[in-house]
Hints:
Elements: E1 2-6, H1 11-22, E2 26-31, H2 39-48, E3 62-63, E4 70-74, H3 80-90, E5 94-97, H4 106-109, H5 111-131, E6 136-142, H6 166-185, E7 189-194, E8 197-198, H7 207-217, E9 220-223, E10 230-231, E11 234-235, H8 236-246, E12 260-265, E13 271-272, H9 273-284, E14 289-292, H10 308-314, H11 322-343
Parallel strand pairs: 1-2, 1-5, 2-4, 5-6, 6-7, 7-12, 8-11, 9-14
Antiparallel strand pairs: 3-4, 10-13
Bound molecules: nicotinamide-adenine-dinucleotide (NAD).
Amino acid sequence: xxxxxxxxxxxxxxxxxxxxxxxxxxxxxxxxxxxxxxxxxxxxxxxxxxxxxxxxxxxxxxxxxxxxxxxxxxxxxxxxxxxxxxxxxxxxxxxxxxxxxxxxxxxxxxxxxxxxxxxxxxxxxxxxxxxxxxxxxxxxxxxxxxxxxxxxxxxxxxxxxxxxxxxxxxxxxxxxxxxxxxxxxxxxxxxxxxxxxxxxxxxxxxxxxxxxxxxxxxxxxxxxxxxxxxxxxxxxxxxxxxxxxxxxxxxxxxxxxxxxxxxxxxxxxxxxxxxxxxxxxxxxxxxxxxxxxxxxxxxxxxxxxxxxxxxxxxxxxxxxxxxxxxxxxxxxxxxxxxxxxxxx
Length: 344
Ligand SMILES: NC(=O)c1ccc[n+]([C@@H]2O[C@H](COP(=O)([O-])OP(=O)(O)OC[C@H]3O[C@@H](n4cnc5c(N)ncnc54)[C@H](O)[C@@H]3O)[C@@H](O)[C@H]2O)c1
């Protein structure tokens, strides 16, 4: 099976590539390597997959030294000509679309990049999948589509038409666009609504890395809504397992009416923000300095995944408790920072 992974230099994409490549799957990874956050982290993830930054040249495949079955190509999802050539050349079976402009807060500062990557880019992926008869498109959606939904846990059957950030609006639009392509062209699509993913090689704009950095360097942590928030923190390995288990479950293939599906994927054990901070303090062996603030625009108070549908489909069983997941994250983060400081 040949798989395209978009956003391959990103947090989740990197882990998905590594797992697929380890399992012997033929994988092509693409990413536009934008500078929304530290580009060195993206290069470091690629290097961890055997793709050296020096090998990355526009319009040329970079072969992994680690996996004979993995190649990387720098492409922007917005560039339809290059995507078309890639799909023509490679004849993929499955596409996993993780490339996107992520981050709720940044969508207030820079809305247009969300429209480009998440709407135009996603349309290009849908068109490419349509014309190349892709067997299954699995794509990233987000728990943020639930907006201020106050019915917990969040179920896929809940109405999700009141997004409170442009990021959430683009993710919900992706789901609607996928529905249309599945309906019109029988393109099998599965949208996965991820719930706060954390772990090694994570994103610098998300709370685990922001908090760890502040605690280690003695900076004050801004705690929004006075800490009265809960998040369904989900460990990266549990997310990757869930994505891989969904690939062979092709909607519309077993007499189902619809060729599209939307599923929550989360730990289903929401953690109060203050407990998260205390667990991080314990793991790092240092106290945090906290600055309590009101709620931020675009943010939501609670996320909590009902994963009944995913369990029924694949037997999904996330098994990483917060303490264990944070220990793995901190071990990686300290080593990464140390290696970075040593290089400088
Ligand atoms: N991490 C989470 O907690 C979380 C939660 C909900 C949804 N998601 C979604 O999961 C996906 C992966 O998230 P992540 O945490 O790995 O984020 P990430 O930012 O680390 O990875 C996304 C990657 O996509 C690339 N990219 C962005 N725009 C692109 C474009 N136009 N063309 C090609 N590549 C492009 C970026 O360079 C980046 O490497 C995203 O779609 C995100 O919205 C993540």
